């Protein structure tokens, strides 16, 4: 009798343990099934903009226009699912950083980078594009809004001259683009299956506005160069030692300044100089061996 009771007691404990284990495993499986991979939806709300991925064709053209190479560090502001930084790393060998405010989206971008084999080149930062430091970027990509581009513009213009900036669909107000990608696409933000959309490209210009003393100009001991600047465009006056002055017109391509003027013999010349802070080292297009130096006065 006592043996029969002990046997029933042991069997009961085993059945209870089996039930508990089955309940745990069943609930664990349901928990795994409920934990789905994050799937963003087009036009879902974000901190500043809704999420719409850049078309693949336009991603390629944006990076090609910026001439991205393995020597570049690309920052994508508002990285979403990581498409642009991943493309920059996988196809062009660049190092790339994406800044994304949404933690779920940022994690998804990291998973994509891992899955495509570029996690060693791509970093996804969960953060605010207006607070994170991207000053060491050589290329900056954007798909925001004009209002946000304008808010970022002072920061972009203070970056190293020659930094390339590419935006999908939206411009920078009075800062005209150096190049329009897919200009045949009518209107801003229009996406065409054939072309992939419209983009805008800028090169951060050096700062040259002010007064400069110029030496080395053929036939002139010292000349005074006064420049006004509006982003990559510049104009001003060149004054010779005899106080004769003339208008100069120029353009900046990053740190390279090109000016056209007429020399002392009234011959049109093209001044090509490399801006390095308060100095410009230059030559004449028509006489490459001519060495000139401009020093900023104020």
Description:
The chain has helices at 2-34, 56-65, 83-92, 103-115, 146-157, and strands spanning 73-77, 95-100, 122-126, 139-142, 164-168, 179-181, 199-203, 210-215, 222-230, 233-239, 245-253, 256-262, 268-276, 279-284, 287-296. It is of the alpha+beta class and 298 residues long. A hairpin with a 2-residue loop joins strand 9 and strand 10 (233-239). The N and C termini lie far apart (110 Å).
Give the gist of this structure.
This protein is α+β, with helices and mostly antiparallel strands and 298 residues long.
Write the layout of secondary structure elements.
Elements: H1 2-34, H2 56-65, E1 73-77, H3 83-92, E2 95-100, H4 103-115, E3 122-126, E4 139-142, H5 146-157, E5 164-168, E6 179-181, E7 199-203, E8 210-215, E9 222-230, E10 233-239, E11 245-253, E12 256-262, E13 268-276, E14 279-284, E15 287-296
Parallel strand pairs: 1-2, 1-4, 2-3, 4-5
Antiparallel strand pairs: 5-7, 6-7, 8-9, 8-15, 9-10, 10-11, 11-12, 12-13, 13-14, 14-15
Helix pairs in contact: 2-3
Relative helix content: 25-40%
Major sheet summary line: 8 strands, antiparallel, barrel
The rounded Rg comes to 30 Å
Alpha-beta classification:
alpha+beta
Distance between the termini: 110 Å
Count of individual beta strands = 15
The secondary-structure element order is HHEHEHEEHEEEEEEEEEEE
Q: Name the poorly predicted regions.
A: 1-34, 187-195
In which order are the strands of the major sheet placed? 8-9-10-11-12-13-14-15
Instruction: Report the portion of residues in β strands.
Output: 25-35%
Shape descriptor reads: elongated
The mean pLDDT is 85
Number of helices: 5
């Amino acid at each position: 009798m006592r043996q029969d009771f002990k046997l029933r007691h042991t069997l009961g404990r085993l059945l209870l343990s089996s039930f508990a284990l089955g309940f745990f495993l069943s609930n664990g499986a349901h928990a795994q099934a409920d934990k789905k991979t994050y799937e963003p939806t087009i036009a879902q709300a974000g901190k500043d903009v809704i999420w719409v991925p850049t078309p693949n064709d336009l991603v390629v053209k944006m990076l090609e226009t910026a001439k991205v190479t393995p020597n570049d560090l690309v920052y994508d502001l508002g990285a979403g699912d990581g498409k642009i930084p991943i493309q920059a790393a996988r196809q062009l060998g660049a190092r790339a950083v994406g800044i994304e405010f949404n933690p779920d989206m940022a994690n998804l971008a990291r998973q994509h980078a891992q899955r495509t084999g570029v996690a060693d080149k791509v970093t996804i930062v969960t953060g605010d594009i207006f607070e994170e430091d991207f000053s060491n970027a050589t290329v900056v990509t954007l798909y925001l809004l004009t209002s946000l581009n304008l808010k970022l513009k002072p920061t972009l213009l203070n970056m190293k001259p020659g930094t390339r900036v590419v935006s999908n669909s939206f411009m920078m107000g009075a800062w005209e683009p150096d190049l329009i990608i897919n200009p045949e696409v009518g209107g801003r933000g229009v996406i065409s299956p054939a072309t992939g959309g419209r983009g805008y490209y800028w090169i951060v210009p050096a700062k040259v506005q002010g007064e400069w003393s110029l030496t080395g100009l053929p036939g002139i001991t010292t000349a005074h160069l006064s420049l006004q600047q509006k982003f990559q465009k510049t104009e001003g006056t060149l004054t010779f030692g005899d106080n004769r002055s003339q208008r100069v017109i120029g353009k900046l391509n990053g740190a390279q300044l090109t000016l056209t003027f007429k020399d002392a013999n009234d011959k049109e010349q093209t001044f090509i100089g490399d801006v390095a802070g308060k100095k410009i080292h230059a030559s004449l297009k028509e006489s490459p061996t001519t060495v000139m130096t401009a020093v900023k006065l104020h």
